[in-house]
Amino acid sequence: MAAETRFDRAHAELVVRSLRARSSRDGFDLVQPLQIGWYNAVVDQALCLEDFGSGRNLGVVIGNTRALWPKLLGRLQTDPALRAAAHPVEQYTETCIAGAVSALGVPASVRWSHDVGERPVAMQRLAQIAGLAYLSESHLSVHPSYGPWIALRAAVSFDVCADAIVKAELGHPCGSCQAHCLPAFERAVSASGEPRDAADIRANFPLWLAVRDACPTGRGHRYDDAQIRYHYLADREQLLAAAGIPSGPDPIPS
After folding, report:
1. Would you kindly state where each structural domain of the chain is located, as residue ranges?
2. pTM score over 0.85
3. The CATH number of the domain covering residues in 2-170
4. Three-state SS for 97?
5. Which residues pair with 59 in a beta bridge?
6. How many CA atoms lie within 13 A of 105 on its CB side?
7. Mean pLDDT across the stretch 112-140?
8. 244-248 — which CB contacts under 8 Å span 24+ positions?
9. What is the C-alpha separation between 186 and 208, in angstroms, rounded?
10. What average pLDDT does the structure give for the chain?
11. With contact defined as beta carbons under 8 Å apart, do 107 and 48 qualify?
12. In terms of DSSP bridges, do strands 141-142 and 134-135 run parallel, antiparallel, or are they unpaired?
């Protein structure tokens, strides 16, 4: 049994290293492991991740910094199907991460942050439990280095024992949001109202952007203006323009 446990631990570390290397090539440069049971123990059943029969099995949170943007734009230039997708970032995310997971050859289950249907995940809470990003009072996930300039994309469960993963307590990177982000957050909430949806966020996106800009952590890692506008406004024409692609349908091959 001891030998099997050592093998399982080594296997989990190899899975994380391999997934990190594959995901980073596509711009998904945040890959943080955890034991699935840490998360499942504190959320409602509907939000639980697949644990393959053991809460000690490996879970991984995948996200990105601004490193995603040039990778995405490059793929758009060469992939007509991605250019035609209704939601190019979501399509790119699913294609890249699903491919990276499948290549590992390990039984796995993937959930997406953009899927709010039958398989939702409390992604911000998951990221905090994993030690990736702190969920602040202003509802931002704040990375210790990159601040709020990150996106959480996927949660992956593996049928691999993760006993070697040590749980880390993640402190508030800024100490408090009281002097910086909370006043901006309250202004954005006041303008958008509650409950609010994506249309409310788009209509008031400068106020919501101001919440991120108010955070003192990670300011050097701020997204560029084109990436910011796309993430808040989801304007496909603006995205294609950023990739240097003329608007209109792709030419039909002769």
Report:
1. 2-170
2. yes
3. 3.40.109
4. helix
5. 34, 157
6. 2
7. 94
8. 244/73, 244/77, 245/76, 245/77, 245/83
9. 10
10. 91
11. no
12. antiparallel
